[in-house]
Amino acid sequence: MASLQIKIPEELYSSLKALGYQDQDIEREFLEDVVLQLYSKHVISIGKAASIIGLSIQAFREVLLKKHLPVEYLTKDVYEDDLKTIESLGKD
């Protein structure tokens, strides 16, 4: 995995440390938040997002639900497939 150093305000760092966060906890929280943002913006898939933070897809879905974020995004292809299915069901 590549490494990137991010500067955060000293006050924020001190507050997190006072709450008992260790450096690895802070790194994990930041990584998770970035991954959630990228997933929410459709930059990465659910599988890629889960993989980056070391979770199964099901465990990542549970994180999304706990944070009240959409679990799956409706893409144009999925929407069109759903429309075709609905149309075919109505032809009976």
Would you summarize the structure shown here?
The protein is mainly alpha-helical and 92 residues long. It is built from five helices and no strands.
How does this model look, in words?
This protein has one domain. Helix 3 crosses helix 4. Helix content is 63%, strand content 0%. It is mainly α and 92 residues long. The protein is elongated, with a radius of gyration of 19 Å. The protein has 5 helices and no strands.
Annotate the secondary structure layout:
Layout: H1 10-18, H2 23-40, H3 46-52, H4 57-66, H5 76-89
Helix pairs in contact: 3-4
Strand content: under 5%
- Assign the structural class, choosing from mainly alpha, mainly beta, alpha/beta, alpha+beta, or little secondary structure: mainly alpha
- Count of alpha and pi helical runs: 5
Total individual domains: 1
Overall pLDDT score: 88
